[in-house]
Description:
With about 475 residues, this protein is α/β, with parallel strands linked by helices. It has 17 helices and 13 strands. It has a 6-stranded mixed beta sheet.
Amino acid sequence: MSKRYINMTLPEKVELAVREVENQFYLTNDYLIKASEYFEKSMDEGLKAPKQSREHMPMIPTFVTKIPNGKEQGIYLAADLGGTNFRVCSIDLKGDHTFELKQNKYKIPLDLMKGVKADELFQFLAIKIQAFLNEHHDDVANNKTKDPLKLGFTFSFPVEQTALDKGTLIRWTKGFDIPDTVDRDIVELLQANLTVLEVNVKVVALANDTVGTLLSRAYQNDPSKTNANTVIGCIFGTGTNGAYYETIENIPKLKNPPKDCKGMVINTEWGSFDNTLQILPNTTFDEIVDKETANKGYHLFEKRISGMFLGEILRVTLLNLFERGLIFQELYKERGGSLPHRITEPWLLDSEVLSYIQIDDSTDLKMSELILKNVLRLPTTRDERIVIQRLTRAIARRAAQLSAIPLATIVKRVQDQYKDDDRDFEIGCDGSVVEFYPGFRDAIMESIEVINPLKGSPKKIYLKIAKDGSGVGAALCATTA
Length: 481
Ligand code: GLC
């Protein structure tokens, strides 16, 4: 990520403190190489461990046993719950790497994300699917079709999957907290609520968004044109996670694999890589952020990388400097002993704000001044903005470097599956951070090069933005039912 310092000297005391914090977020090349080795070990342990536990990366078999080749056809429904929005789409797969998609997006009301019963949330989802059909597919809505329309449900939370259409929630992440959903079958919950509404839809596949991203990119990728195989589907957005195809002999915990299946897509849930902090960098700021979350002690890798957390890490870092008397002192006095609530309350500093600050090269960081004032109601001095920009860059750089660890490691691991062709490797990725955060992809690629997973091979690695993963991908999962 580029750094442009325009004579940005700070008072010595502040400079020393900022440097010290920057150092805490700094990762060396050696670290990345070691962390990649540890990631590979964690993958194997997760693929072995018969039971889910905090100590192991979940490495969940998905019962998706093949990667699409672009020839799949038909009309399918997809529903997607993964963060603050619920998306319903219908997808017409044309069988030539292309598709047509209709979709509606519905905001999940905050009061349905926690403190309610599971059925209240799932009834809301079923009602929205019905509303979508009323608008786009009135034949299905009015029960004029004989066979139910097949639906692939992208549910982007850790799920213990036992069949393509069966899976129980392990735990909520990303701000959801509805305790009576845990250990219950997600497909059943949705299907029951659709049946009550007499909607002629059958939920045939449950998929994680990363599985969807992998399948959707593989469908759209035509290797004869790109000369690349799609090997990972991943998300760097509100949360982070990835999926890839593993050979069956490497999944010892899968006791009864489907007949004749040579391999299976694994949902790694890498957000939970190293929950026991054997190797992850752990600053006091990371500790504070973890304590503020509903899933404390879990998904610690995600909490250093994804969009939900970058702003929060910056916020607690800034508050620490404030408490040490280094920034916001005048403001505090002027306001009679307080700071604006958007900086004192958790979760109100969006990573989008960081993405503007990251690349601000205006004189005295005037653009950042405006944004901080408008979005956070936070007036700042020039020196404070310099501090904020340097910390933003340190936090985002660490996030991008960490993101490279699973990507490089998985490419290294799967390369043998492709030893008989000379194609490059592409990684399908989706999510606001990887798509929009300035310099994030370049920084990931730099760190992948440091880890150098394909030592000695002429093959290359590309990051490809894969849109509509959770819609098209879920439909593709449904085609395998
Ligand atoms: C969280 C979820 C995971 C999902 C990811 C990206 O890490 O646990 O299932 O894939 O966010 O949305």
